[in-house]
Amino acid sequence: MHRRLFPRALAVLALVATAAAAGTTTATAEAPTPAQTRLNATIDAILSDSRLDGAQAGVVVVDTATGRTLYDRNSTRRLIPASNTKLLTSAAAMELLGPGHRFTTEVSADGSRRAGMLSGDLYLRGGGDPTILAADYDRLAEQVAAAGVRVVAGDLVADDTRYDKGRLGPDWTWDDEPYYYAAQVSALTVAPDTDYDAGTVIVQATPGTRAGVRPKITMTPDNGWLRIDNRAETVADGETSISFEREHGGNTVVVTGRIAVGQAAESDWVTVWEPTGYAADVFRSALRRHGVRVLGRTVLGTATPDTAKPLARHDSMPLADLMVPFLKLSNNGHAEVLTKELGRQLSGSGTWAAGLSAISGYVGDAGVDTGTLRQRDGSGLSRRNLVPPAQFVTLLSAVRAEPWFDTWYAALPVAGNPDRFVGGTLRSRMGGTAAANNVHAKTGSLTGASALSGYVTDADGRLLAFSIVLNNYLTSSVKGLEDQIAIALASYTEKETATARRTVPAAPESPRVPEGRECSWVKPALC
């Protein structure tokens, strides 16, 4: 593994050289142009909105070609960035793990084999893959059967020792635990579909054929790890209101509420308690389907011995491809796995502490002043994360020189593009404006904290890096204000035109964040 050093001093020298080549001076020595003065007045007017009364706002905009600051309000103030934290994590992963990095899941046998009998244990070793599906475990089981194993006399051992036993971020709130965006982190897990929310199960309620009967409850993937306590009822008519809630400390999902006859099924993503056992259960069922019987128990958390012989393996998609569901859908689980994988690769320790140290090292080399920020997890779910907007813009400017930049830039959500795996968390925002299919930026949302940081090409063709971080507001959403600023930047020009003289641009209505839910992506709404 190779780590390319990018000392802070070299980053500064490069910026100065670029500015000199462009015939510019530093931002502090250069008087604002009339266009810049108008831009400042426009953003100031947006930030004077009553929704921000008593709130904190940090906004900074920089011309990436010259390094000139076009707008700055409270850019050095430490604010809760929510999922903008993923900018730090994803950039470090692309550099330190590399775009070609894959996660490997292996099956090995320890013991003698004769006439289809394994006189020993079968080991399922997790490599951290957050995208592995039930179908992938089925293919692993098929490989085991193809290797001639028919009976395992010993145990099925689920090896999750690549990472530590820390399942939940140290600062995550207890009431987030059942929701998909706060799934437990393990080196051995299962994702239910191609959103790749590892460590979750999709639970679905289908109405009965008549009022008074229980709805039919199914799970994807089907498994024996979770138990359903169905307390819901089918009603003749009326509004459907179904709730799926996993009880703390266990795997019982309580289904309550009402669903009307003839209505469409209702479903939700529910986290599991101990994803290692979930993965082992799914794999054991797959072995049974392929004619492989395990006579022993399922044992969790034991390391695969060096003497074990490989039977099957599954490699994940490369990291370059993983960046798409990770950043487009703001997948918290991916961020945390990548953090622990960074720790494992760089120091041999698959922990949050080791991974965060690796992230800090990379972004510091890229010019970020790590002494001004605090990062407590990979995803931004922790409210103890604090990052000044100026440091996001420093990173956004620096990574443009990285060989993987184009892949990373394309993986960011794109404003107003309705394709879910292009527009991502911005697909319903800024449509029909100058920012549509232009702004590439990371969203961020927690209750009372919202952020948007990324890139926009202005009307003169300049690529601008910007960061907007808003905290401590009481309204349900301030996404529209972020959008207005982004639209103003997309329309910015130094030329004297009627459009240039327009003040505050209008922005389409933005999705609202559900009250009381900490999130970076609320299904199916945006957050």
From TrEMBL:
Its EC number is 3.4.16.4. One of its GO terms (biological process) is peptidoglycan metabolic process. It comes from the Bacteria. SUPFAM superfamilies: beta-lactamase/transpeptidase-like. Residues 1-22 form the signal peptide. Coiled coil: none annotated. InterPro entries: Beta-lactam/transpept-like, Peptidase_S13. GO terms for molecular function: serine-type D-Ala-D-Ala carboxypeptidase activity. Keywords: Carboxypeptidase, Hydrolase, Protease, Signal. Belongs to the peptidase S13 family. This is D-alanyl-D-alanine carboxypeptidase / D-alanyl-D-alanine-endopeptidase (Penicillin-binding protein 4). It comes from Micromonospora tulbaghiae. The gene is dacB.
